[in-house]
């Protein structure tokens, strides 16, 4: 049989599904799922393939919701609106469509290429100690279950399914519509500064809790960081976006074109990385601008890389970074990509990496032509020692047995899965590893 080939953005996963389907309606999708289940075939929904893990891989039917996109309904609330969105909508299109209607996502990650259902499914998050990840904004979900039933779930309707499906890893059903609790549109001021790691860690509590959206990038082999402080502003604040030319230079040339060149050069000559990192940390120096919130959150990432990200208790961050620096210092491992540090509020989503605790995120990256395994393994060991939780969509080596102990509601998720998908119609290798 001729099979189609699917590959994810990072080129870490390839699948040869029996068929790639793009249903044009929920009815068509429901019939497809029921038919596949009746014939013992597996089904997997895919978004934009931006997970580094095999979360979206299948040898059965790969279902893209690219024809189920856009805003379906808007119901105003006290401080924004409940916006019902078709699951295949890309964040880029969603953000524009929300802005046109006077609304915005309460927080966002650093790219906008993902589908809304895919982003939610793996616990995609941004930064900000008072804010949660995207799944905390979900107020309701419409899903297709293995028998083809189309059901809604929310805090009041099938609440157990809702809690498990908010970050559902694609294991419980194909999400077709998402109700998002959006806020009124807002502008944002961005301040980016080159600083020392020591000064940044000294001021950490103040910045983490005092700045709306604080993050920093630490350049390994140096004690330099790039800090980003984003402050929310009223929607009618006069905008002062990055001018096109300097935006092109810093976002496109330095962050993508030159950075690709740097990575090719340092792949050939890894011993130059410490010197190169010192220069990069200073060149990506200070700038300020004000723009629509969603334009400030997202940047373009065209240098291909591998990533692992760990959610650690916020109070352990300084020790975790020191351990990572110690490991890099003790080995001859060289990495040109900065370590990204972000923050989130504690939340109550069952499989959220920030479940029940104030969280710091530590993300490590490696250029796709370099070997990342020893680095990621070392950082994983360091993060595990402080009860770190891996991002569900990024590389990690954890399994069901050792994940179970860090998520108080893990067994509840497994119970909901056993109930709605006992035949594992939505199963795949990744889910077998992490959920059993
Ligand atoms: C360059 C880059 C930058 C990133 N930045 C961030 C960031 O800032 N913050 C962060 O937290 N993460 C980030 N990520 C990770 C990314 O947000 C997640 O991996 C996200 O899940 C990708 O969304 P997607 O639409 O590509 O989903 P896919 O990778 O295609 O799928 C992810 C999972 O969602 C499931 N799924 C997709 N659609 C549906 C549906 N309709 N119903 C049920 N399940 C579904 C799939 O089966 C799979 O299990 C980044 C990744 C890349 C490559």
Describe the structure.
The protein is α+β, with helices and mostly antiparallel strands and 436 residues long. It folds into two domains: 71-185, Uridine Diphospho-n-acetylenolpyruvylglucosamine Reductase, domain 3 (2-Layer Sandwich); 187-390, Alpha-Beta Plaits (2-Layer Sandwich). Helix content is 32%, strand content 25%. The protein contains 14 helices and 19 strands. The protein has helices at 26-38, 91-100, 116-121, 159-166, 197-202, 204-210, 244-268, 273-283, 293-297, 317-330, 373-384, 400-404, 410-420, 429-435, and strands spanning 6-7, 14-15, 19-21, 43-46, 61-64, 71-77, 80-86, 103-104, 138-144, 150-153, 174-184, 187-196, 213-218, 224-233, 287-292, 305-313, 339-344, 359-367, 389-390. The strands form four sheets. The protein has an eight-stranded antiparallel beta sheet, with helices on both faces. Strands 6, 7, 8, 9, 10 and 11 form a six-stranded antiparallel beta sheet that branches. Strand 6 and strand 7 form a beta hairpin. Helix 4 crosses helix 13 and helix 10 (317-330) packs antiparallel against helix 11 (373-384). The mean pLDDT is 94. Residues 9-10, 44-51, 55-56, 65, 87, 109-111, 114-115, 117-119, 121-122, 124-125, 169-170, 174-175, 301, 391, 393 line the site of flavin-adenine dinucleotide.
